[in-house]
Amino acid sequence: MRLFFYVPILAIASAIAGCGVSAQTKTIVAGSKAYRHAADYSREARGLSVLVIKGEKIVFEEYHNGHSENTPWMLASGTKSFSGVILAAAIEDKLISDFDEPVSKTLTEWRSDARLSKVTYRQLLTLTSGIDVGQNARPPAYSAAVMFKSRFEPGDRFQYGPVPFQAFGEAMRRKLSVKKESVMDYLERRIFEPIGLKVGRWTMQEGQPNMPSGAFLTAREWAKFGQFLKNGGRWNGKQVVSAKLLAELTNGSKANPNYGLTFWLNRSNSGRAEVAENGGRLRQILGDRPSNTTEMSRRGFGPDIPSDAYMAAGAGNQRLYIIPSLDLIIVRQGRLTQFDDREFLLRMLGKDTVPGANGSK
């Protein structure tokens, strides 16, 4: 399954970043030729990094094509998944009552619209709100995002795009304004500082963080976020965010069982996701073919990948895979080219010799 997420290619910022989980500065291989097999595939597909954590230890780490462990790289749409964790933290902090609170309670502009007035935070971040999601690669400012109109009844269709995340950013901005705290300050205080995650760079719009595609991290720093999630919100023995609330992020919707609250899932191979295709530049690029996000929505990663696998994913095939049943975290960063998630994962798991692997029928 080839999956692409379209965002602008931004300049790379430099930062020195440590790792809270068995930091290493050289290639590590521990007991599995499968990791090497997957890393070779990644490198050939313009990959920059492959990092694997089994349990609490880095068991494989390698950098390719001129990249290094100390260079932050764009997460692109991989950034989107931070919004889901912000929502969970905001519920725990009683800034938001629950996942099903109407967003119009805060975004008062939506109250006069019959459909927008009903949109919940769950629908907003599962991308089933019905709002016009805008064009991928062109996130609007927060102030503009709240002015986008509704296209569908909330819950009926899945639409992938940047507007819901910027609208969420505006809702959080208003929630936090009474505390005189910015969205970025909240994210850093509530999530990043407790787990020691250092951001290389985050692009801003009108002084606010770009929620769908603004983050730049090293592989090691992104891996910390994966460990935090795999361990149910715990870090060094401390519960940073409620495990019960974080578990909600990996529940798909009726419209799309393969997308939760900001994470891609592998829950269904039925092809029954109710997906509304975007128009504009994305459709010009893809012609009459369904987008790869649509294909992922309908097929997941594949029936031969664990059903509990989920990921944050972005343009250029940036990937943070989390597979709780295997106690596994995998980071893959790269440049834009063809890349097949299923082939990479089958190699990583030592399953690529099974019938149907590597795209065979």
Which strands sit side by side, in order, in the main sheet? 1-3-2-14-13-12-11
Determine the oligomeric state from the structure. single chain
Q: What gross morphology would you assign?
A: globular
The total tally of domains equals 1
The appropriate CATH architecture is 3-Layer(aba) Sandwich
Euclidean distance between termini CA atoms:
13 Å
Total strand count, please?
Answer: 14
Helical content band: 25-40%
Under CATH, the topology can be stated as Beta-lactamase
Percentage of β-strand residues: 5-15%
Mind telling me the C-alpha Rg? 19 Å
Structural class: alpha+beta
Task: Quickly count the helices.
Answer: 11
Low-confidence stretches: 1-25, 280-288, 354-361
CATH homologous superfamily placement: DD-peptidase/beta-lactamase superfamily
CATH class: Alpha Beta
Output mean pLDDT: 88
Helix-strand string: EHEEEHHHHHEEEEHEEHEHHEEEH
Largest sheet: 7 strands, antiparallel
Features:
Beta-lactamase, 361 residues, disordered N terminus, 3-stranded antiparallel beta sheet, globular, single chain
Concise account of the structure shown:
With 361 residues, this protein is of the alpha+beta class.
List the helices and strands and how they pair.
Layout: E1 28-29, H1 33-44, E2 47-54, E3 57-63, E4 73-74, H2 81-92, H3 121-125, H4 142-145, H5 163-177, H6 183-195, E5 201-202, E6 204-205, E7 208-209, E8 215-217, H7 219-230, E9 234-235, E10 238-239, H8 243-247, E11 264-265, H9 280-286, H10 292-299, E12 310-314, E13 318-323, E14 328-334, H11 341-348
Antiparallel strand pairs: 1-3, 2-3, 2-14, 4-8, 5-8, 6-7, 9-10, 11-12, 12-13, 13-14
Helix pairs in contact: 1-11, 2-6
